[in-house]
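EI: anyone free to look at a 345-residue chain?
SC: sure, send it
EI:
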Amino acid sequence: MLSNEEILSARLMVVDDEPNNVVLLEEGLKREGFTRIKSLTDPREVLELYKDFRPHLILLDINMPHLDGFQVMEQLNVVEQGGYIPVLVLTASSDRQVRLKALKFGARDFLTKPIDLLETICRVRNLVETRMLNEDLEEKVRQRTAELNETRLEVIRKLGRAAEYRDNQTGMHVLRMSHFSAALAREVGFSSEECELLLNASPMHDIGKIGIPDGILLKPGSLDDEQWTKMRTHTEIGGLILDGKGNMLMKLAQSIALHHHEKWDGSGYPDKLKGEEIPIEVRIVTICDVFDALTSARPYKKAWPVEEALDFLQRYKGKNFDPDLVDKFVEILPEILRIRDTFVD
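SC: here you go
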């Protein structure tokens, strides 16, 4: 339950083309103790005031010039994208069809003109309390959802780093390549939300290495044919680990884990996807993963200089890599190097 002070702190809007009705409602609400009241007699001004004031309740007349109450509710529905609109309809009509139409447009309750102030106060208080309680519940749900999302992301990051620790004791590779990937995605026009999704999905690209024996994964020299065949299965193992109905994040992570060794010319594995058959997110991650792998030390190799790694990308664009994405990667190289310097092994 809300306190009386909390209810009286509600933001109220009164919209009626008759000034006398506006004055009557304002005075009655103020006598009750409501102080945050905005009133309009021109319905054309409602939309902008609504966006700025964000009222807990609108007392809205139906029959008005320029825009009737139904048209005002249509505008509010666009703002709220079909969600809750806090409207108490004022109408002199007893027509059942008018009331049904108002409900269809989103009205929460009705007041019949001429206005009975005692009834008005009771209905306003009830609707305001319900709205405020719902807002409080929605905020708690948002907070809990944010906490769950952050927990899920942290588990994902830990999984990615756990796989990387198998052959890189700092696990910083996944941080570098995921930030590289987000930067390249942003350069080619991904939205902020899409970049964030890629940032959080790409650390799991090598999760399948968990299933590769240490004798192969940590071997300091070259792998023989049998060992190389086994090593290649880490993509399919990763796909199986991340398999399931899952959300967009897990689906993208699975796609990246399964296909990040596909090549532009179709000679990669495991499915020999070619060109744009390979999802663009995967093509982005592949370039970023290879660049950081080449410029990082491993048990079986020394780190390459940046210039040599760039030469490799250029030499194999159109073969291993999407040529347009390689060019974009080179264009943002200063940002890539800043990221690399931030996450040092």
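EI: The radius of gyration is 30 Å.
SC: 👍
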